[in-house]
Amino acid sequence: MISRLHDPDYPRWASQIHRTGGCRQPIHLRGKVEHWDTATGTLLHRYSTRLEPDGVLRVPCKTRRASRCPSCAEVYRGDTYQLVRAGLVGGKGVPETVAAHPCLFVTLTAPSFGAVHTRREKSDKVLPCHPRRDAETCQHGQVMSCTTRHGADAVCLGEPLCPDCYDYTGSVLFNATAPELWRRFTEALRRRFARLSGMTLKDLREQLVVSFAKVAEYQRRGVVHLHAVIRLDGPTGPHLPPPSWATGEVLAQAVQHAVSAVAVKTPAAPGVPARVLRWGKQFDVRPITMTGDLTEQAVAAYIAKYATKAAECVGTLDRRIVPTEDLATLPIRDHARRLIAECLRLGALDKLADLRLTQWAHMLGFRGHFSTKSRRYSTTLGALRAARAEHQRDEAITTGRLPLFDEDTVLVLTHWGSTPARATPPETPSSPPP
Ligand SMILES: [Zn+2]
Ligand SMILES: [Zn+2]
Ligand SMILES: [Zn+2]
Questions:
Q1: What pLDDT digit, counting tens, does each position of 370-396 carry?
Q2: Is the N or C terminus of the chain more exposed, i.e. has fewer CB atoms within 10 Å?
Q3: Distance (Å, rounded) from C-alpha 280 to C-alpha 316?
Q4: 130 C-alpha vs ligand 2 centroid, how far in Å?
Q5: What pTM was computed for the model?
Q6: Which of 80, 99, 104 is nearest to 88 (CA)?
């Protein structure tokens, strides 16, 4: 730190760090950009990282994960908030009339895989965890009752009353099939609308589009819940209202129907019978309003918050598990360790290979995207990022850091390479170490 502070390049270095927004793991770029006038063949401007401190330009890592880089995750959270909110009240290219479209906030839960320690509150009072007067004792000698009123940060929250009775197989198989369950749910929703209106699916598409934005949230017990904004539009998306018969009540009924109608069957494997997995019985369907409890701001903030989290809040790792690692020595909760071990056990079975449980063991079996939206829901994260980049470029031109040039007559030549400042094991599959 002292040598950095006394370095003549310190102001430039500090300005680079400032411009990454305080990224914890900036990417180090090496390269150059040249602007050539195509008419006269003269070089208008040249930028090279050779003259930068340490010969690199630091750019933000742009992760969405708060556990890896809080400042970049904060940018991602803000973008997700704007994206979700635009789909509820308009803005960012979405007309304000979208606010009048039928729209619901839906939470789809996982079923129970065994009793876990929970903290329940009722009118500001904490209730006993899992009280059972005539509780049975399980075959492992554990009384299946817990009368403790757990604190909000109790470490046992989400952990099974008896880990040996807990259905770890069901838990990881549910996570693995949740994306498919969601896909079938959206299909069932469309089919329900087609049936209600007496149309074919193809004809329905000419009249109505179901748009959504959704996010996955890990419960402390290690299963995912999905929170989704589901909105009805006309055939071209948010610019046209849906037909008058497609009201909020009809949407709520269709959601109720679709949640209970869909199921996914996992293949049978040696020692693991085929299983039919469904959404949990407890699901929540609520209208989004401009005032009251569930405003568009509250919904957008809620979804954006979960978009920057992953399974690490369950006490697992936020990176892939390398085959050579010893699971027993990883610094994780025992409950997470057993969920990961179950992923690795099932992942080794040929019949279940399609679920890719080994690769996604650190996510406890879930390999879906954390936050997704349908094409017509609202703007895209890419469009929001492009707008920000353009704003920064304009600012650079205004402050003289970049020349003002005519894009039609100037050729921009770039040559870039990068090295991560701090190695984070990649999300994409890589070959194991030799
Ligand atoms: Zn970052
Ligand atoms: Zn308890
Ligand atoms: Zn037991």
A1: 788 898 999 888 999 999 888 988 888
A2: C
A3: 23
A4: 6
A5: 0.85
A6: 99
Cα 218–Cα 219–Cα 225 angle in degrees, nearest 5? 65
Strands of 278-362, DSSP E:
284-287
Task: Please answer whether residues 254 and 192 qualify as being in contact, where contact means their C-beta atoms are separated by less than 8 angstroms.
Answer: yes
- Give the number of the ligand closest to the Cα of residue 143: 3
Are 297 and 339 a contacting pair, CB within 8 Å?
Answer: no
State how far the Cα of 298 lies from the Cα of 74, in Å rounded to an integer: 17
Amino acid (1-letter code) at residue 255: V
The rounded Å distance from CA 207 to ligand 2 centre is 51
pLDDT the model gives residue 420: 59
Distance 117 CA to ligand 2 centre (A): 4
| Amino acid letter, residue 213 | A
**Torsion sign across C-alpha atoms 421, 427, 430, 432:** positive
- Per residue in 276-314, pLDDT tens? 999 999 888 988 877 777 888 889 888 888 888 877 777
DSSP H helices, 113-272, are 168-197, 201-205, 248-261
Quick one: residue 22, left, alpha or beta (phi over 0 = left, psi -120 to 50 = alpha)?
Answer: left
Q: Report the distance separating Cα 356 and Cα 321, nearest Å.
A: 13
C-beta atoms surrounding 210 within 10 Å: 23
Question: What does the pLDDT read at residue 421?
Answer: 54
CA distance 117 to 99: 40
Residue with tokens 């704007």: 82
Distance, in Å, from the CA atom of 66 to the CA atom of 330, rounded to the nearest integer, reads 21
pLDDT band for position 129 (cuts 50, 70, 90) = very high
CA of 95 to the centre of ligand 1 (A): 33
DSSP sequence for 241-279: PPPTT--HHHHHHHHHHHHHH--EEEPPBTTB--EEE--
pLDDT band at 247 (very low <50, low <70, confident <90, very high): very high
User: What is the C-alpha R_g of the chain?
Assistant: 26
Q: Are 83 and 379 in contact (CB under 8 A)?
A: yes
Q: Say whether 186 sits in a helix, a strand or coil.
A: helix
* Residue whose structure tokens are 């007067």: 133
**What is the rounded distance in angstroms from the CA atom of residue 38 to the CA atom of residue 226?**
53
β pairing state of 209-218 and 224-233: antiparallel
